[in-house]
Design a protein that fits this description.
Elements (H helix, E strand, L loop, with lengths): L6 E5 L7 H12 L6 E5 L1 H10 L5 H13 L5 H6 L5 H12 L4 H6 L3 E8 L5 E4 L5 H11 L9 E3 L2 E5 L8 H6 L4 E5 L24 H8 L1 H17 L3 E4 L14 H19 L10
Parallel strand pairs: 1-2, 1-7, 2-3, 7-8
Antiparallel strand pairs: 3-4, 3-6, 5-6
Length: about 290
């Protein structure tokens, strides 16, 4: 597989398992590797923002050090923000004061960055990008990471949105459809992993205003497992490179054990070196 100007970077989500991705992205930044196109979902979208602004270590600091300090995951936020996460802290205080986001550096990055959301009206994925409106950028990131059932619906361009992982957890087909025929895919699960939970029909009174979203949620496990099978097929055919954890993860989506998170970050950094370290990256226009 040639690593060049038709190579994209695809970032899966996975909540706090995304600290594996933080390690991969810091390895890329340490080796000054930029991609012409990057697409991220949920935690992959949020971590990808720091990669696109070239703020090495920012995603790790936000996910581990700031979690240890602020404890921003918890049921108590359901009472005040209707969310399992302290979204005010994550999408207002962090980027504006506590872990300032370098929006100017992000704008100056010539690469295209898309974030995946689920449109609650259509039940389809939306692939959104923004390089001029800072507030809209953060709203897209917030929508892409808003887990169903435990986070509120987010309006982007007056459209109700939720976590992009509902319908497109691993958007490699999106990258290929745009002409990026070879891709580096960062997963947060080991090879061979499949969801074992069975899909169930979502009752009518859940998201009653969004019947197509209910349909999408009713096929979530099937959709994700199908994408994992496709990724493994493309990998075996040499059409993509995959950086993933080597063994079964001991980290939950809403993990709060910072020792586990630090270990997973280090694993991500090491795995990136093993998979990508011997490759030549040529993103020139030749």
């Amino acid at each position: 597989m040639e690593i060049g100007r038709q190579t994209g970077l695809v970032l899966e989500g996975g909540g706090m398992r995304g600290v594996f991705t933080c390690g991969v992205l810091d390895w890329l930044l340490d080796h000054r590797i930029d991609f012409p196109y990057t697409v991220g979902v949920s935690a992959g979208a949020c971590n990808g923002l720091s990669y696109m602004s070239r703020q090495r270590g920012r995603a790790k600091y936000s996910n581990i050090d700031m979690l240890e300090k602020y404890k921003y995951i918890g049921l108590r936020y359901l009472w005040t923000q209707h969310s399992i996460l302290d979204q005010k802290l994550l999408y207002q205080d962090f980027p504006e004061r506590l872990v300032p986001y370098d929006f100017e550096a992000y704008k100056a990055n010539p690469g295209v960055f898309e974030m995946v959301t689920t449109n609650c009206l259509t039940g389809q994925p939306n692939y959104l990008s923004e390089k001029s409106d800072y507030k809209r950028l953060l709203r897209i990131a917030k929508a892409s990471s808003s887990l169903p059932y435990v986070c509120p619906v987010v309006l982007v361009d007056r459209m109700p949105m939720l976590d992009g992982g509902i319908v497109d957890s691993i958007p490699v087909e999106r990258a290929m459809s745009l002409g990026y025929t070879g891709n580096v895919v960062v997963l947060t699960r080991n090879r061979g992993y499949r969801k074992t939970a069975r899909d169930i029909r979502i009752p009518w009174f859940v998201y009653r205003r969004f019947p197509r979203l209910r349909v999408a949620l009713s096929h979530r496990c099937e959709c994700y497992n199908r994408q994992l099978e496709e990724v493994e097929r493309l990998e075996d055919e040499g059409k993509i490179l995959v950086v993933r954890p080597q063994g079964k993860l001991e980290v939950d989506r809403l993990e709060e054990n910072v020792d586990k998170l630090r270990a997973l970050y280090e694993e991500g950094y090491a795995c990136a070196g093993k998979v990508l370290g011997g490759l030549t990256f040529n993103f020139g226009q030749g």
